[in-house]
Amino acid sequence: MRLFGMFLFSFLFLMSISCSPERVDTKEIDRLISKTDSLMKSVTKYNIQFLDSIYAISGKELKNTISQGRINIKDSIFFYNLLNESTKRIKNIYQYSHKEILFTRDILVSLKEEIIETGELTPSMKDEINNEKEILKLLKTRTDSSIVLMNESIDEIYKFLGDTFILASHKN
Question: What is the pTM of this model?
């Protein structure tokens, strides 16, 4: 009897394991989530880089050019206003990109949870994944554009310093 009980228990255990729902393949959606993470890292890296550049320029470059008599007070006020505007512009661009990326990521994570919960990948879910792929392509382009816009803000500052250096050299 004891042997029969162990056999029955083993049989029921094996049946429960084999009848449990199979895990749905989420590799594709995981890859899309990974792309959003990559975009976030990229835009964050450039945001930090550009803001660090602004702070370095504002501290070191302007101090050196004023002490050497290259920038007058009016130019230095304009320069600090330019730094302030550039900083705000870069932060706004970053925040907008950040929100877009997080929104897309949240949609993908929700979709993944839905797939796992239902245990299958329905045709409507496949369509949604394809839509999110297209959105991710657009988001990649927008992120690249945001990085270019942040870079243009830094270029304005360097242009100002370059123009100032040129003007100062003609006065000497």
Answer: 0.72
